[in-house]
Amino acid sequence: MVSFTVRLKFNPEDQAQIEETLRVLTAATRQEPGCVNYIPHFVEGEQVTVLIYEQYADEVAVDFHRNSEHFQKYAIGVLYQKMLLREKEDLTAIA
Hints:
Layout: E1 2-9, H1 15-29, E2 35-42, E3 49-56, H2 59-67, H3 69-82, E4 85-91
Antiparallel strand pairs: 1-3, 1-4, 2-3
Helix pairs in contact: 1-3
C-alpha cells in the first residue's frame, strides 16, 4: 500500500476554480485501477489550503494515476499552474 498527503496553497480568488477542478479530478481518480482512497480537503482556518489524502494499492497504481489523461489535464494543467506551494508527505501505515 502506498499512502501520502499533498498540501497545496492557492490564491483566494482561485478557490472556486480549484474546488471545481478537484471535484472532477477526484471523480476520475476514484475510478482508476489501484486507487484505494483519494480525498481532497480544504484545511479549516487556512485560506485556500488543500490537503489531499491519497492511497493506492502499489507504485504501479501511483504511476497510472500520474500518467492518466485526467491528471495531466486537471492536476498539471490547472492545479500546478495556480498553486503557490506544494508539499508531499509519504506515510507509513501503523495498522
